[in-house]
TrEMBL record, chain A:
Belongs to the bacterial solute-binding protein 1 family. Pfam families: SBP_bac_1. The lineage of its organism: Bacteria, Pseudomonadati, Pseudomonadota, Alphaproteobacteria, Hyphomicrobiales. Keywords: Periplasm. This is Extracellular solute-binding protein. The keyword Lipoprotein does not apply. It comes from Devosia sediminis.
UniProtKB/TrEMBL annotation, chain B:
This is Sugar ABC transporter permease. The chain crosses the membrane at residues 25-51, 88-107, 119-137, 173-192, 213-232, 244-266, 278-304. Belongs to the binding-protein-dependent transport system permease family. Signal peptide: none annotated. InterPro entries: ABC_transporter_permease (IPR051393), MetI-like (IPR000515), MetI-like_sf (IPR035906). Keywords: Cell membrane, Membrane, Transmembrane, Transmembrane helix, Transport. GO terms for cellular component: plasma membrane. It comes from the Bacteria.
């Protein structure tokens, strides 16, 4: 899962050393009126930028000291859960939409409605976007940035193979035809498309394109064994034709930025959340591009915009007002966002987003162009996943492994997926 | 009167025993403090949690034997974890002890530079449990890794990834474990030094061959040491975690082929927030290890003989 390369680690060390030298002695007062803890999961770029912003915040708010802790997402949730059990969660935490409801309904995070208009200024946010942080009518998390699942591709490989990316209105058939063009010219050890069938957003989009979904409003499964079997069969054919890599390469992909097939330079096309474009580009010497998921012939749009991460204040914080100040600073301060930029997705604060649009870097320009086309091809955000959904996601990866190692047929895998998912939901 | 005498003599016996064992208990004190201050409380808490549903975020709910019922009747990953763990223990422990004994006997010959060799052979045990070595192992057995290239030299098709093949992934972890034979080797070496040379000389006089001397003298004399190593290594093997965690990125994959019991326990507790069920798994592991240790002890009277029995 680690995204840490030696290069980025060194960069991180240098940056933090420079940061410490520049701000260290000045901003940490001898005594602090309040001490906040702020935790997030991330990657070296995010950690570096967020720490720099926190230093600025401390400089502007004498009397507030912020201790930061950044972890890999695999380590983040166990640690947060353990701290929740011990009643010593951080004051401000980065939240995933998946867990927002569980933490809110268990009273581990607090409603922020009273802070909005006081410490927290959301006047430049789209109300609809803010609403994705609501649980049972109350605002428990404020979206930190927007993203959408996407197709990421290697432009240099396309040039090398002499192929041209079809228009983003492509159907799944056109997508696989394009993959066949690549396969025809790709050298041995190279494949067209990463086998991301087990990546839940890919399955989700496939279902939503036919008006189905992973989970219903009531938290029940929104698809049948036959739906899953059809999906698995599509990928099995691709594997049989050699369009996606064989099982052992797919098994290496633990969804970390560095283990994905596109980062290991095995494939020309991969799938990822749009805010990972920068991170994936950092792993790749070739220039990457971003486009829409293939569409279903005669189907409906399957993609949706989602909040990449949210910011929450925990129930056991004893400096909630100061915590709200920090949240506001991270979300709405122009100086802060000049440093954070779009690493957590496109900012929800429209004024900030507009400022960033004035001088976008390469990744940001691509992301913005991508968002412009995504916006015309989205359906509403899905209902919140039920408890146990996180485990279903892990189970699906395992189950798909059995499929690609030929232990199961697509039909059997479809049956197993539905049965095992139901068993997990029943047990949660 | 009689009772008083017997009580006081029992007290004397205890005092005598205490005087004899005093230094031993002194050495145990750091461990005892650690056990009572740090381990005992959480261990007892986990015994209670084993009978609850506990998601960490909300207080535990008592559910009786539900966890164990699910474990034995429904949980196919639990069965897979048992199978992986037993396969690992039954292969890695005998292989490791065999290799350790072989190397120890070779080193015991007293050739020049023995100390150096001993240090070199011990090295993997020092570094072997580390995350760095597990990462190195990944590289070795991955597609395009060293083994892949060696196999290609031998005429295999390119792109053989042993580590990502569910039929072979566990084997690489067994090899990784066997490679760390240093600790039992050092203990075997000490044991070999204890065997009186006159036994060997007498046997040689009587015309015993090398193999005969090994089976009739070395092995029986070494039995207490083998016994000790067997118990320690078996317990260690049941508790294996780091290598599988790093090599499979915490998944136990490919498709659960390296799902060690401890790894499954960790996933249930810390990834899926079922701390109650994870506690039940932990206590069942304790029972398994205790049973294996008891069996080894019971079998000992048939093959372990101490020459210092008073």
């Amino acid at each position: 899962m680690t995204n840490l390369t030696r290069r980025s680690f060194n960069r991180y060390l240098l940056a933090s050393a420079a940061g410490a030298a520049a701000f260290g002695g000045l901003t940490v007062p001898a005594f602090a009126d309040s001490r906040l803890r702020f935790m997030w999961w991330g990657n070296p770029t995010r950690d570096e930028r967020t720490n720099a912003v926190v230093d600025l915040f401390e400089g502007n708010n004498s009397g507030i000291v912020v201790d930061t802790e950044a972890l890999a997402s695999n380590d983040y949730w166990p640690k947060i859960a353990t701290q929740a059990a011990g009643g010593n969660m951080p004051d401000v935490m980065q939240m995933d939409y998946r867990f927002l409801f569980e933490y809110a309904r268990r009273g581990q995070i607090v409603p922020l409605d009273d802070y909005v208009g006081n410490q927290i200024d959301l006047s430049n946010f789209d109300p609809g976007f803010v609403d994705s942080g609501r649980v049972d009518g109350q605002l428990f998390g404020i979206p930190f940035g927007a993203n959408s699942p996407s197709v990421i591709y290697n432009m240099a490989k396309f040039a090398e193979y002499g192929v041209t990316l079809p228009d983003h209105s492509w159907t799944w058939d056109e997508f696989w035809d394009f993959a066949r063009q690549i396969k025809a010219v790709a050298p041995e050890g190279q494949w067209a498309v990463a086998d991301k069938a087990a990546w839940e957003p890919a399955f989700d989009i496939f279902l939503r394109q036919q008006g189905k979904q992973l989970y219903t409003e009531q938290g029940e499964l929104g698809y049948t064994a036959a739906d899953a079997a059809e999906y698995f069969e599509m990928w099995r054919q691709a594997r049989e034709e050699g369009l996606v890599p064989p099982a052992d390469i797919t098994a290496q992909d633990s969804d970390g930025l560095d283990t994905r097939p596109i980062s290991r330079r095995r494939v020309a096309i991969d799938f990822a959340h749009s805010n990972h474009l920068g991170g994936l580009q950092g792993q790749n010497p070739d220039e990457l591009g971003i486009t829409l998921f293939p569409h279903r012939e005669g189907g409906v749009p399957g993609q949706y915009m989602k909040c990449a991460t949210l910011l929450c204040i925990t129930a056991n914080s004893d400096a909630k007002d100061d915590a709200a100040k920090l949240v506001n600073y991270l979300l709405t301060d122009p100086e802060a966002n000049k440093i954070l930029r779009m690493e957590r997705g496109v900012p929800g604060d429209n004024a900030i987003a507009a400022t960033l649009l004035e001088d976008p870097d390469d990744i940001e320009r691509k992301t913005i162009e991508y968002f412009a086309i995504v916006q015309d091809n989205v359906s509403p955000m899905p209902p919140p996943p039920p408890a146990g959904a996180g485990e279903v996601e892990v189970m699906m990866v395992r189950l798909y492994g059995e499929l690609i190692f030929d232990r199961l047929t697509p039909e059997e895998a479809g049956e197993r997926l539905v049965n095992d998912a139901q068993a997990i939901l029943d047990r949660a | 009167m009689a009772t008083i005498t017997s009580t006081s003599s029992r007290w004397d016996a205890f005092a005598r025993q205490w005087r004899r064992g005093r230094s031993g208990y002194m050495f145990l004190i750091p461990w005892l403090i650690g056990f009572f201050a740090l381990t005992l409380g959480p261990a007892l808490a986990s015994l209670y949690l084993a009978f609850t549903k506990y998601d960490i975020l909300t207080p535990p709910v008592f559910t009786g034997l539900d966890n164990f019922r699910y474990m034995f009747l429904q949980d196919y990953r639990f069965r897979q974890a048992l199978q992986v763990t037993f396969t690992y223990v039954l292969w890695s422990v005998p292989l490791k002890l065999g290799l350790a004994l072989l190397i120890a006997i070779a080193l015991d010959k007293g050739t020049r530079g023995v100390d150096l060799y001993r240090a070199i052979f011990y090295l993997p045990s020092l570094i072997g449990g580390s995350v760095a070595i597990a990462v190195l192992w990944r590289q070795l057995f991955d597609r395009d890794g060293l083994t892949d290239q060696l196999l290609q030299l031998l005429g295999w098709p390119p792109g053989t990834s042993i580590l990502n093949n569910p039929d072979h992934a566990l084997k690489t972890l067994i090899v990784l474990s066997v490679w760390q034979f240093g600790a039992p080797m050092v203990i075997f070496l000490a044991g070999l030094r204890q065997i009186p040379q006159d036994l060997h000389e007498a046997a040689r006089m009587d015309g015993a061959k090398t193999m005969q001397r090994f089976f009739r003298i070395t092995l029986p004399m070494l039995a207490p040491v083998i016994f000790f190593n067997l118990i320690m290594q078996t317990i260690d093997a049941f508790k294996a975690f780091t290598q599988a965690f790093v090599v499979s990125a915490g998944t136990g994959g490919p498709i659960d082929s390296t799902l060690f019991y401890t790894l499954y326990l960790y996933q249930e507790g810390f990834a899926f927030f079922r701390m109650g069920y994870a506690s039940a798994l932990a206590w069942f592991l304790l029972i398994i290890i205790a049973a294996f240790t008891a069996l080894t002890f019971l079998s000992a009277k048939y093959w372990v003989h101490y020459d210092d029995t008073r």
